[in-house]
Known about the structure:
Layout: H1 8-18, H2 22-65
Helix pairs in contact: 1-2
Transmembrane segments: 22-42
Keywords: Membrane, Transmembrane, Transmembrane helix
Amino acid sequence: MNTLKPPAAFCFPFYLYRSEVGHLFTFNVMFIVFIQYAFVIIKQAEPVSNLLLKLYQQLETISQQI
């Protein structure tokens, strides 16, 4: 029977987290990674928001013409 296990990369921070020394180190690394992911998501979202804004402006001009 094959049990579902989380990947090793996911488990590793928690093993470090249990040790006294690795506690702060792990927190810092996870925090930095989280911030980097947040920046990537924000950068990806920028063109989408611009696109939506242009679409909204076009709809506004069309509705004014009607």
